[in-house]
Amino acid sequence: MSEKLYSLLLRMFPWDFRERFGEESIQLFRDRFRNETGFCSRLRLWIDLICDLAVSLPLEHVRLAPEFAGVAQSGASRNPAFQILREGSPRFGAWFCGTAITLVSLTGLSVAIATVAHHPAATPLIFQQAYSQMSSPQQITQPVQNESFTFDAAERARVIDAVATDAREHYGDREIGSRVADSLLAQERNGGYDGIFDPTAFADLVTHQMQGMTANATLMYFQRPLPLTTRGSPTAEQLDLKTLKRATIVGGPTAGAADARVFFRIDDHFGMRLADAADTRNTAERLTETKLAKK
Amino acid sequence: MPKQKLSPLPAAAFQILLALVDDDLHGYGIMRHVAEQTGGRMRLGPGTLYTSVRTLLEAKLIEEVDSRDDANPANERRRYYRLTSAGRKLARSEAERLADLLRVARAKKILRGEYV
To answer: What DSSP letter does each residue of A226-276 carry, written as one string?
Structure first.
């Protein structure tokens, strides 16, 4: 079986090589296969053979091709891209052409990947992937309720609506922001969040979805929905370091402080959205530094 | 068909010439000798081995001898290769060139361990 496989691989060599050395090559394979027993030895044998094919196959075909033969014999090739390495070191022109072609190819590939990743058609997959990474929503099967709020379908819808509005109006890249908003709203309409009663899981899911669509790791929503409608700067008590977990800026890296919407996590069930603070980020940092100094 | 240059002598070709210094060998024998000479670092596959063999044959540095019946149960007939006088001369000059390089390296005291 192995010999047959190697015989098939040998067919990739030019006809004259097979005619002259085909039988000997198979004999060599047979000898090695007979003497190199055991899993590791056989694995090394196949690795050697594949590497050998990768190196010698192109050289044999170049050797056979008359157009390349002319280039090799002439020595000084007029087309540096086809200079044969075995005949000598590549000239500067060959290096330049090879580098230019490589850079153009990589750039084109990057643009293609970025285009596909941001295409709306890719969004459902991102949703699926993000959702599959989340803790199972079935762990909490009933709406969470405490003295502050009830996390139910209505609350989910309100959160999605608010996050979508923020993304559409304040994200640095308006097109991406609109796309994020449309995707979140579509998910909500299609029942994509039905059955999620765990506020933490819901916040994580929305965060992952937004990060997936924007490729912006600073974009987060981690709040329980209440009180999204709260406005104004947080109090010192509300920004206590023990409860200040993460902050998210829905505005992208190009948005100014005035446009940023910052969510602070206050405790397990309470969050604050700072919609109207003129210098939100500096305020938060100043308060944070104050707290650190006091400690 | 273009001929492969042998100046400077490629490593695989030099190792094959060295392997054939003491005795005529077939392909697997050459491969085994080269592996022993290089401490296992160079294991010639069929493609590399026989492209080098063809180049050495064309340059008349080795020659093919009559096939022999190997002393094995399968009684396989194999092609053996022998070093020609030109091949021996080239192998010697290449070895001397490498020895000169080694002499210079030793004089500059850049070698360590068993190569000092």
So the answer is: TTTT--SPPPTTTT-TTT---EEETTTTT--GGG--EEEEEETTEEEEE-S
Helix H, strand E, coil C: the string for A124-145 is: HHHHHHHHHHCCCHHHCCCCEE
Question: Going by C-beta distance under 8 Å and a sequence separation of 6 or more, which residues neighbour residue A220?
Answer: A207, A210, A211, A246, A248, A263
- Test A24 with B5 for CB contact under 8 angstroms: no
Sign of the alpha-carbon dihedral angle for B1, B2, B3, B4: negative
| pLDDT tens figures, A228-282 | 334 444 554 454 444 444 444 343 333 333 333 444 444 444 444 544 433 444 5
**What pTM was estimated for this model as a whole?**
0.43
Q: How far is CA A24 from the centre of its chain?
A: 49
Q: Which residue of B has its CA nearest to A87?
A: B5
A194 inside 8 A of chain B by CB: no
3-state secondary structure of B82: strand
- Whether the predicted interface score ipTM is above 0.85: no
Nearest CA in chain A to B45: A52
Please name the member of B2, B5, B50 whose beta carbon is closest to the beta carbon of A21: B50
Minimal CA separation from B105 to chain A, in Å: 24
Could you tell me where the beta strands, DSSP code E, fall in A152-205?
Answer: none
